[in-house]
Design brief:
- With about 70 residues, the protein is mostly helical.
- It folds into 2 domains: about 30 residues; about 40 residues.
- Helices cover about 85% and strands about 0% of the residues.
- The protein contains 3 helices and no strands.
Length: about 70
């Protein structure tokens, strides 16, 4: 009979621990900067994503310059 009583208590302890862990993870996710939150959804390295963003910015500036020079 003691085993049956311990089982729900152990399960309750496990659930409380998991709840605490999930709350910590949730607060960590909320405190992340937008850039890091964005990187969590894309499965490439941060360095690769920075290079892609940099290239797109350079391309945007080039397009702006070409557009202004054709006026």
């Amino acid at each position: 009979m003691e085993e049956r009583e311990k089982l729900p208590e152990e399960r309750l302890r496990e659930l409380e621990e998991e709840n605490r862990r999930l709350l910590e993870e949730n607060t960590e996710l909320k405190s992340k900067p937008l850039k890091e939150s964005f990187y969590d959804h894309i499965h490439v390295s941060v360095r690769t994503m920075d290079i892609i963003i940099g290239c797109l910015c350079v391309l945007f500036v080039v397009v702006l310059i070409l557009g202004m020079s054709n006026r």
